[in-house]
Amino acid sequence: MRHIISILLENEPGALSRVVGLFSQRNFNIETLNVAPTEDPSLSRLTVTTVGDDRVIEQITKHLNKLIDVVKLVDLTEGNHIERELMLVKVKALGASRDEVKRTADIFRAQVVDVTPSVYTVQITGDAGKLDAFVQAMAPIGILEVARTGVSGIARGDKLLSL
Amino acid sequence: MELLSGADMIARFLKDEGVEHIYGYPGGAALHIYDALFRQDSVKHILVRHEQAATHAADGYARATGKPGVVLVTSGPGATNAVTGIATAYMDSIPMVVLCGQVMSHLIGEDAFQETDIVGVTRPVVKHSFSIKHPSEIPEVLKKAFYLAATGRPGPVLVDIPKDMTSPTERYEYVYPKKVKIRSYNPVTRGHTGQIKKAVDMMLKARRPVFYTGGGIITGRASEALTDLVQRLGFPITTTLMGIGGFPQGDRCSLGWLGMHGSYEANMAMHHADLIVAIGARFDDRVTNNTSKFCPTAKIVHVDIDPSSISKTVRADVPIVGAAGSVISEMISLLQDREPASPDALAEWWKSIDGWRAEREGKLYEPSKPGEALKPQEVIEAVYRATRGEAFVTTDVGQHQMFAAQYYKFAKPNRFITSGGLGTMGFGFPAAMGVKLNFPQDDVVCFTGEGSFQMMMQELSTCKQFDVGVKIVNLNNQSLGMVRQWQDLNYKSRHAHSYMESLPDFAKLIEAYGFTAIKVTTIDELEPALERAFADTHELVFLDIYVDPFEHVYPMQVPLGSMRDMLLSKTERT
Ligand SMILES: Cc1ncc(C[n+]2csc(CCOP(=O)(O)OP(=O)(O)O)c2C)c(N)n1
Ligand SMILES: [Mg+2]
């Protein structure tokens, strides 16, 4: 099963490499990884999506917790949560396909954020499934480049991941 | 207020932390620190002859005392030479602090002379590591390093120290930090009482229980509590290789150690058990054999301080995260309030166990006949008698290691010192130095093989400099015996590079350093040689004992089998 694990990490040099190193060292898989500072400058928030059975996920969370730089973590997929990813896509936009790109973007509530005579750059947010669907829809028109942030997420309701 | 340079802070901190010995080797990036050590006399520096030996010596010290061993090396090759010893300590959860010199901060990343990213290199084999960013943080970072190394599940901690952090011209305030707090690190001690109750219930109901305990008993200083618990319940107990000495091996409840080369009765008892109470052990592959066939009828209680050890390879029915000593004490106090199980409850179980014991009695190995080569097993037994079972014993890795573990019986913890997890050849001799330097009045025996000894024999020079009187027992089978055994069993005796051609004349080699060496080739030379060797505990003596090169270590679990699938000799199997 796919899991989304969000981690509060000491904002220290080398901390990120310990997390990433752990995954490769123990043969755990990383599908996406997203990291940025939080409102507390001493902490970064890191979100990983990974796939594994219960035993593997249990090992992943236990080993992450063992890292000294990991302050706290939560497996968001254990409860209701919001999951978002942002993607920027450059699509070929020539002739008839120029309209086609715009129409498809509208259907997905994506925005065209940059334009040249031959290229549209489209921005879209949503869960990973929506982004995948958008890529599929655009593929026949001609995708030139894709940049995805990887999943970020947060629990629904009053539940917090904080110190 | 006291102003000290970074280098002086390090020396001063080590003193304030109560460190007596550090093991190391100098070089450019560490020279300010060496100068600071020169100008004080509280901390004694032991100059090894290879940085790997510094880590093993510190490790031996840590295993014998329970306190962190301390290592000091320079950047680049000094640091990379230490990696094997750091990994050795990591695999066996041994507390160690490794101080590494590093190139000046402004040169980092420029491939400067003797620069390696040692934090990166060692990342998978340390509990944690630090890089010093400013001299003023040295006391606190060092305190954190010692705290992390020694608490929770212990392990090596590396501190990378760029040379400019120790510059003699920059001085900062020094205060010894008595305590440190790390917000993300709060190792558990007490186990969950509800879970412990559940475990105790199961223990009172069990009909075929076995304790299976590991290195956590030794590092957690829980062997007295464990002995009390086992004796109250009258359960059989087997330990891992790392757990040897956690329970007195002479006691009737002791089945010896288990696993690949464990005792017949221990492996049989595990296989037939209805309850396994694992404490401070990690169900590793050298213990469980094939996990899908592991202990088919047993419920499993697993106590460990490291949650990630629990249900890693074998699922626990009752997981208990906690320190061994604390959980055992709680089990004992719960048992005191409970009706004890009837004394007959285990009678059948002990009958089976005594039956397994009787089956192998007197058949463990064939002693040598007059005129034949000595058997390694009988040499270990003779050393056991000569030292009255009271020596600190270190080993290298190979057949001699297994024989030492099988035939030297330990009554106390911290006495059997071996590289279990990593299996590092070269470990035994420097580890023995680290022990002997701290227990000068005790006999310290290193069982080694001619293969392993040659990996760290340069340390003879260190022993000469610091008068380290270890006893080296070289079980010389003129081959990489353990490799050869596997080749006999799995490769139709094609001995690809497992023989030791061109062995040195060890006696001459030892004598070149001014030590005594005794060569032993027959059984009647053995006792007198041992008598001579152990006459003076302060003298280094090397016993070069020629043993049967064809001997195998048995029992040996059959690969992919269950606990009870064992080869018992060259001709018998279960
Ligand atoms: C550093 C290292 N290299 C290789 C091995 C693999 N290995 C395990 S036992 C062994 C043979 C050891 O020979 P020796 O020290 O003579 O001991 P014996 O088995 O003959 O008693 C080898 C090569 C190892 N454990 N460690
Ligand atoms: Mg050998």
From TrEMBL, chain A:
Keywords: Amino-acid biosynthesis, Branched-chain amino acid biosynthesis, Transferase. Pfam families: ACT_AHAS_ss, ALS_ss_C. The keyword Transferase applies. Pathway: Amino-acid biosynthesis; L-isoleucine biosynthesis; L-isoleucine from 2-oxobutanoate: step 1/4; Amino-acid biosynthesis; L-valine biosynthesis; L-valine from pyruvate: step 1/4. InterPro entries: Acetalactate_synth_ssu, Acetolactate_synth/TF_NikR_C, Acetolactate_synth_ssu_C, ACT-like_dom_sf, ACT_dom, AHAS_ACT, AHAS_small-like_ACT. GO terms for molecular function: acetolactate synthase activity. It comes from the Bacteria. Residues 4-78 form the ACT domain. It catalyses: 2 pyruvate + H(+) = (2S)-2-acetolactate + CO2. Its EC number is 2.2.1.6. Catalyzes the conversion of 2 pyruvate molecules into acetolactate in the first common step of the biosynthetic pathway of the branched-amino acids such as leucine, isoleucine, and valine. Belongs to the acetolactate synthase small subunit family. Dimer of large and small chains. PANTHER family: ACETOLACTATE SYNTHASE SMALL SUBUNIT (PTHR30239), ACETOLACTATE SYNTHASE SMALL SUBUNIT 1, CHLOROPLASTIC (PTHR30239:SF0). This is Acetolactate synthase small subunit. It comes from Salinicola endophyticus. The lineage of its organism: Bacteria, Pseudomonadati, Pseudomonadota, Gammaproteobacteria, Oceanospirillales.
TrEMBL record, chain B:
NCBIfam families: acolac_lg, PRK06466.1. Its cofactor is Mg(2+); thiamine diphosphate. The keyword Transferase applies. Keywords: Amino-acid biosynthesis, Branched-chain amino acid biosynthesis, Magnesium, Metal-binding, Thiamine pyrophosphate, Transferase. It is an enzyme of class 2 (transferase). Binds 1 Mg(2+) ion per subunit. Residues 396-545 form the Thiamine pyrophosphate enzyme TPP-binding domain. Belongs to the TPP enzyme family. Pathway: Amino-acid biosynthesis; L-valine biosynthesis; L-valine from pyruvate: step 1/4; Amino-acid biosynthesis; L-isoleucine biosynthesis; L-isoleucine from 2-oxobutanoate: step 1/4. This is Acetolactate synthase. Its EC number is 2.2.1.6. Signal peptide: none annotated. It comes from the Bacteria. Residues 5-119 form the Thiamine pyrophosphate enzyme N-terminal TPP-binding domain. Residues 196-330 form the Thiamine pyrophosphate enzyme central domain. InterPro entries: Acetolactate_synth_lsu, AHAS_TPP, DHS-like_NAD/FAD-binding_dom, THDP-binding, Thiamin_PyroP_enz_cen_dom, Thiamin_PyroP_enz_TPP-bd_dom, TPP_enz, TPP_enzyme_TPP-bd. It catalyses: 2 pyruvate + H(+) = (2S)-2-acetolactate + CO2.
